[in-house]
Amino acid sequence: MKESFNEQTTVGELVAQYPQTRAALEKIGIDYCCGGKHDLKTAAAEKGVPLDKVLAALKDSLQTQPVGDTRDWTVATLTELADHIEERHHTFMREQLPRLQDLLAKVLKAHGPKHGTMLNPLQGTYNSLRQEIEQHLMKEEQVLFPYIRQIDEAASRGKPAPEMHCGSVQNPIRQMEHEHDNAGNALSRMRQLTDNYTLPGDACNTFRALYDGLQALEDDLHQHIHLENNILFPKAIKLECASK
Ligand SMILES: [Fe+2]
Ligand SMILES: [Fe+2]
To answer: pTM to 2 decimals?
Structure first.
C-alpha cells in the first residue's frame, strides 16, 4: 500500500484515514484523540521517540487489518456519525460507568487494607470522571448533536445553517474539547496509579475484571473522542461556515 502520510500529517488525520494505525500509536504512547491536532513530528518529539522509528512503525501497521470499527467515517454524513457515536459510544459509557464504579467499590472493600494507597485515589479519579462524562454526554445529546444534525439537514437542502442560541457551533465544540482533555487526563492518571494496569500478586478475579473493564473503557473513550475531535467537530465547523 502506498501510504499518504508524512511528518506533517496530524495524528487525527492519520487515524481518520488509517484506523489500523491506532494500535501502533497506543503502543508508542502517542495520544490520537485529545492530541489529534499535533503533527507526527511534534507528537514523536513529545514522546522522545525518533521520528523515523514512529513513521516505520506506522508504515508496518498498515499491513494489518483494522480491528473493531472499520467504517471510513470521514465520508459519512454528520448525522450518520452523530447517530453512530450516540448509539455505540454513549450507550457503552452508560452501561459501563456504573458497573465499574460498583466493581471498584468491591475491590476497595476487599483490598483496601493492603492496596488503599493506590485504590483510594483511583476511586476518587474514577468517580469524578464518571460524573463529568455523564454530564458531557447529556450536553452533546441535548444541545450540540441536534444542532449538528440541523446544519447537516440545512446543507443537504442547500439552505443556510440555522442560528444557534450560543452563536457559532465553535463555542460548544470548544467546551466539549476542553472536557475531552479533562477525561483524557483522568485516563492517564488512572493508568499511572495502576502502573499501566499491572495486577498485584494477590489480585482476585474481581480485581482482574476491574482492570479489564477500565482498559476497555479507556480504549472506547479514545475512539469516541477521536471520532468527535478529529472528524465530527471539524466537519461541523466547516459546514456551518460554508453555509452561512
Ligand atoms: Fe460523545
Ligand atoms: Fe464528547
So the answer is: 0.89
